[in-house]
Amino acid sequence: MARYTGPKSKIARKFGEPIFGADKVLSKKNYPPGQHGNNRRHKTSEYGTQLKEKQKAKYTYGVLERQFRNLFEKAQRSKGVTGEVLLQLLESRLDNVVYRLGIAPTRSAARQLVSHRHITVDGSVVNIPSYSLKPGQIVGVRERAKSLEVISDSLAGFNHSKYPWLEWEESTKSGKVLHIPERTDIPENIKEQLIVELYSK
């Protein structure tokens, strides 16, 4: 399974945002990494700004280049605003929904739970993190995995009303996808229009 395994704090510092989750390093060194990180003065080009936004989206959702490009092309073929549709496709991935439901503390932890067969969709085990969910589908924790410490710790005190497009059922440890999220339902600080402009060159 292809995924990014490099240094995470360095990437978070590059973008100036905790894109992999809470990061202590970012609060201490809130400037880009490298020898000249603290006093860079050169202006970023338009292309550089667009590229940075695409990289941020890729790292945030844990998607590599080819997969990201395929999602963009799918968004282009769909009705609606391409940038918004792209974010909706990323949000509808199984690993992201597991993270949004609070079953896992980070997207990488969610990806691991999915690939280790701890997650079900409509009662059947699905071990493909990129599986695309549709409205009405139910994501649950497999019976034998409900006692896992990582899951119970993550769910403890999690605010399930944060995402109006998802509905959580505590008794069954499962969540339902009510509808495709609107752009306002997606909290990520991503300027999707810049990504569209980059790929449209």
TrEMBL record:
Gene3D superfamilies registered for this protein in UniProt: Ribosomal Protein S4 Delta 41, Chain A, domain 1, RNA-binding S4 domain
Keyword field contains Lipid biosynthesis: no
Start and end residues of each Small ribosomal subunit protein uS4 N-terminal domain: 3-91
Coiled coil: none
A GO CC term attached to the entry: small ribosomal subunit
All copies of domain RNA-binding S4, residue ranges: 92-156
Entry keyword set: Ribonucleoprotein, Ribosomal protein, RNA-binding, rRNA-binding
Gene Ontology MF terms: rRNA binding; structural constituent of ribosome
Pfam assignment, any one: S4
Ranges for region Disordered: 26-53
Alphabetical GO biological process terms: ribosomal small subunit biogenesis; translation
Organism superkingdom: Bacteria
Subunit field text: Part of the 30S ribosomal subunit. Contacts protein S5. The interaction surface between S4 and S5 is involved in control of translational fidelity.
Protein's job: With S5 and S12 plays an important role in translational accuracy. One of the primary rRNA binding proteins, it binds directly to 16S rRNA where it nucleates assembly of the body of the 30S subunit.
NCBIfam families with a match to the protein in the record: PRK05327.1, rpsD_bact
The family this protein is said to belong to: Belongs to the universal ribosomal protein uS4 family.
Name the UniProt record assigns to this protein: Small ribosomal subunit protein uS4
